[in-house]
Amino acid sequence: MEKKLLKRIEALRQKLNKYELTRNLVDSEVVEVSQQLDKLLNQYQRVVSYQQLSFW
């Protein structure tokens, strides 16, 4: 699951980097992709935190 999340995160990061060159930061698609990326990053953080807690 962790690797899958990282791949999705990287894909969204690349998409945002492309948008940066052609779109305004308040463009609805930029905002939507940014929000998706935020959700995935939060999910990834929860997974990593849970793994660390499970280790102990």
**Averaged pLDDT, please?**
92
**Pattern of helices and strands:** HH
Sheet with most strands: none
* Beta-strand percentage range: under 5%
Using DSSP, what is the number of strands? 0
Structural class determined from secondary elements = mainly alpha
Distance between the termini: 20 Å
Gross morphology: elongated
Return Rg in Å. Answer: 14 Å
| Tally of separate helices | 2
Q: Uncertain segments of ≥5 residues (pLDDT<50)?
A: none
What do you see in this structure?
- This protein is mainly α.
- The protein has two helices and no strands.
- It has helices at residues 2-22, 28-55.
- It is elongated, with a radius of gyration of 14 Å.
Give me some keywords for this one.
elongated; mainly alpha; 56 residues; 88% helix
Mind sketching the topology for me?
Elements: H1 2-22, H2 28-55
Helix pairs in contact: 1-2
Question: In summary, what is this structure?
Answer:
88% of the residues lie in helices and 0% in strands.
